[in-house]
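Troubleshooting: if your tokenizer reports a length mismatch, compare against these two reference records.
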Amino acid sequence: MIVSQKPKQPIFVILILILSGEAVFILPFVLARVFRPTFLEVFNLNNLELGTCFSIYGIVAFISYLFGGTLADKFKPKVLIAIALFLTALGGIVLASYPSYTTLKFLYGYWGFTTIFLFWAAMIKATRVWGGIKRQGRAFGFLDGGRGLVAAGFASLGILIFSLLITTEIAEATFTERKEAFRYVIIISSVIVGSIGLLVILFLNNNPSEENNNTRKSWSETLSNFRIVIKIPYVWLLMIIILCAYVGYKITDIFSLYANEVMLYDEIESAKVGAYLLYIRPVIGVAIGFLADRTRTSLMMILGFITMLVGALIFSSGVIEPSMNLIFLLSLLITATGVYAFRTLYFAAMQEGHIPLAVTGTAVGLISLIGYTPDIFMGPAMGYLLDSYTGETGHQYVFMMLSVFSLVGLIASIVFYRIPKRKVNVPIKNS
């Protein structure tokens, strides 16, 4: 059995998953992505140092993906998701104190544990259960599209708070004013993350059939899922596909910096570029989800990599000048369309690959172990290129790197599309 047939679950379940699914990443990533120039300034970091923080997060996440997946096959998603939100919010209080660079590196390692070991596979499994057999594309489309909307809402709220607390023109504001304004952005974000954890406790009910009685399995039986998962060929292809697509997602971290350094936007204008892009994520996510359910997820992945490749080639060519605002925004839109499409397709493809629900957590953990390694190497790589080659040149090199990964991902997606789709017969033991 792949995904059990059961009555449709209430819409509020996916809404809570959407809220929690993005809220948990606001503090580690979204604030630094949207406010990157400000973030670098108030924490006195260069791009390589911030990239190192992301890399430490990625190293902890690398281990957490594997064992967190097993955890999700044993414990109820509701409990894991709520604990992850509470602990992540506590980290925000530390961030708001503007800790030293050393403490900041420890904080990002801590977030790698709370957001991945406790949260990630539990969220994916709960979403897959909500989607059932015929709505996997829709479920993950709603999840990522909704997450994009939540991220955009957080970004817009942060920009509003930041701009309201800056009483003069941003170019004339003192460093202290900017630092205090950003502190409030962090604190309010932390409070909201913790509040969403309460919503999970109160309203995310556990479906008794959702884990196929895995909560009663022994650890030895749960760990035996690894032997099952590694025999499924689609798992290995998804590792490559997600790795290449996630490189694209990591590059969205520098969109606001590109606006600031190349297009010469000020800090608020460049933050708005990052926020506006997040608003297209819901549209892309939902649209791709419906298309994937009506065609094939693997076909959508092929089209996604082609779109990402086109956008990457435009930026790496260096044809965009500071006066070419329309071309800049259109190029961002093209690149973001390809990147955000994959946020829906990553795990919707598990249904096409006939990966059984009972080993979803383990499969997610194993796939993510390789697929999300850009969390380790992309931050330092981008930081080195941006610090070593100032201005547009550094950004061109970053997008050249994206072009290479897009091409590799395109080849892997074509293979996934062409290999025969046969149901995987997996002996799942139940207590």
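Reference record two:
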Amino acid sequence: MKLATNTPLATKKSTWIDFNAGVVADGTRTIDEAAHDLMDLVLEVASGKKTWAEKKGFREISIFKDGVVL
């Protein structure tokens, strides 16, 4: 699962990001509400719901960073 720390990133990468934690910073959800939403999503994925990466057929992970990723 990929989590965004801010809503602009989640919006820009909407078909990459599985969960937008930026809703806490935006003030649209409390930390407890966002935690509950995330836990629900984790359970859904553990129960078979596909992540965006899985829907696209990707099976490898690369942490986002500036520069070359090996």
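Descriptive notes for reference record two:
- The radius of gyration is 13 Å.
- Residues 3-55 form one domain.
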